[in-house]
Design brief:
Layout (H helix, E strand, L loop, with lengths): L2 H4 L13 H16 L6 H11 L16 H10 L2 E5 L8 H16 L11 E10 L6 E5 L16 E9 L4 E9 L5 E4 L2 E6 L6 H11 L11 E2 L1
Parallel strand pairs: 2-8, 5-7
Antiparallel strand pairs: 1-3, 2-4, 4-5, 6-7
Length: 227
Amino acid sequence: MDEGHAKKRKCGSGRQPLFTEMEDMICEWIADRRAKALVVLRADIQAFALAMAPHIPVELGPANFKASQHWLDGFLRRYDLSLRRSTTLFKLVDTEIIKRALAFKSFVDNIDFTKYKLSNMIAMDETAVYMGQGSQLTIDQRGASSIYIPSTGYESARVSCILAIRLDGKKVPPLIITMGKKEKTDCVSGIYVLETEKAWCTQAVIRKWADLMFPRVLQGAQRGLLV
């Protein structure tokens, strides 16, 4: 690969647009916001382009400009931009991800699903929901190794949420785990809310959730399976 191809592509290095001056100004606006660590979403670009278009001389901007999704896709492609996720300091290496994925697939492949009832087979996971967490996506240069989005200062304010679905396609009511001293489960608008000393999944929490989701006695073809 020659030196020119090895260098990182710069803003505006893609296919030239029909109205170069107008799109260059949009690209500079994006670069300025990202330099300030501000989030830029697809809708933000469209809104800025629509607001700017009436002030662009006719010879420099398109008539009846609509900032369509088709235009936006082309603009991002021409200027080598894409929707990126905020990077973190700690990431698993590819080899470890592949190792874990293959181990899980092997585990699932060895399960005899004919022994279980579809409605009693549940795939579930739990995730932290941070109160101060804003968008972790922003438009930025392709290939950038670090995508910085500033924190809100409320990272410690959080709840946990268990989401699940039965293998017959029926969604399981979510369970929200909050910090409190009641140690009881309430149902609010079809969503279970559990107060615990710590707002995350513990062994005791999983047991309470399983009691809510599965019948007390499962035998023979009625047996349940939790993934």
